[in-house]
Amino acid sequence: MAARKSSCNCGNLRVTYEGPDPERVSLCQCYECQKRTGSVFSVQARLPIEHVTIEGPSKTWTFPSDSEKPVAFRSCDSGGATYHFCPECGSTVYWEIPFAPDFYGVAIGGFIDPTFPPPMISGFEAYGAAWAMNASGLPMEHHDYDGTSKGGSRA
Ligand SMILES: [Zn+2]
Ligand SMILES: [Zn+2]
Asked: Where are the strands (E) in 8-149, listed by range?
């Protein structure tokens, strides 16, 4: 099977996945995921670490578990998680999950791959913007800022 390749924005921190389609792809609107991504929801896959190759430097930040302080807001990682992000550009690329130690969490946006399997789990919907799950229905002007398309056709 073809390798799936993810990276941070600057390309220094890279994840290569050579394995079956992930069994878990989730979308999450918890407060931690919103803050981590800077967006209104996150989308991530759990990938078996035996099929993952990591290249490049990372810095880490560990979200504390609910048994520690401070946990000031609701998180899907209430058991804690250690996030690996690029020390140069700051993109969070993957993370360690204490309660699922055989997997890495990997942000699927890093793959820039429209064929990546879609989420089959949606979490913490009550914590997100009400419009987030129906954004395509908003009365927005559809526009790619580089002018390559207008009106929603896919690149
Ligand atoms: Zn980077
Ligand atoms: Zn979350």
From this structure: 14-17, 24-28, 42-48, 52-55, 59-63, 81-85, 92-96, 103-107, 121-123
